[in-house]
Amino acid sequence: DAEITQSPRHKITETGRQVTLACHQTWNHNNMFWYRQDLGHGLRLIHYSYGVQDTNKGEVSDGYSVSRSNTEDLPLTLESAASSQTSVYFCASSGQGEGIQYFGAGTRLSVL
Amino acid sequence: KNEVEQSPQNLTAQEGEFITINCSYSVGISALHWLQQHPGGGIVSLFMLSSGKKKHGRLIATINIQEKHSSLHITASHPRDSAVYICAAYSGGGADGLTFGKGTHLIIQP
User: Fold this and answer.
1) Which of A56, A90, A99 sits opposite B48 (nearest CB)?
2) A51 conformational bin, left if phi > 0, alpha if psi -120 to 50, beta if neither
3) pLDDT in tens, A57-84
4) A97 contacts in B (CB within 8 Å)?
């Protein structure tokens, strides 16, 4: 069965360190998204991609970057982790821009 | 930017009760999504609709485009329905056009 997996599921890091969260999907979807979820907020879009070599900034992109070298993977990098980036991160993919998105299980990141 | 409001924020009900969760949005949309987030954190898409009503098992989603309002109903609720229910409104313009509500935390007591 097709799926979307995130790793690691939990991560603790220190401020200033570079951190990369992995996202891998086997749906063969062109569209992939990264969101963060915080108390008091809905899911907020960090970055997204519509295909290989395509990346776009979302609503809360500062301090984050992504790269898309193949269809299956969209890793999210925190260049220099900050305590404000403590959050739960979700990766998602879809076959259409406004279509149903399939979510990964999430990565809980703590920046100390 | 679309403003998406859900009500109630929290809802506790007894098993068997009919549940209604509401979602309103400020800008015209082309699609409305309902998602379910399990206690373990996983998010599953329940419905995507642009008009009328959709039904899947005990779940029913309706949308009134003129009123800018959607509802999610659960009939014969069960403790396994306990979850956070999230609506998201798509108003066009690519991925940036999808705005999520803050969610409704539902607890069904046996």
Assistant:
1) A99
2) left
3) 999 999 999 999 999 999 999 999 999 9
4) 94-95
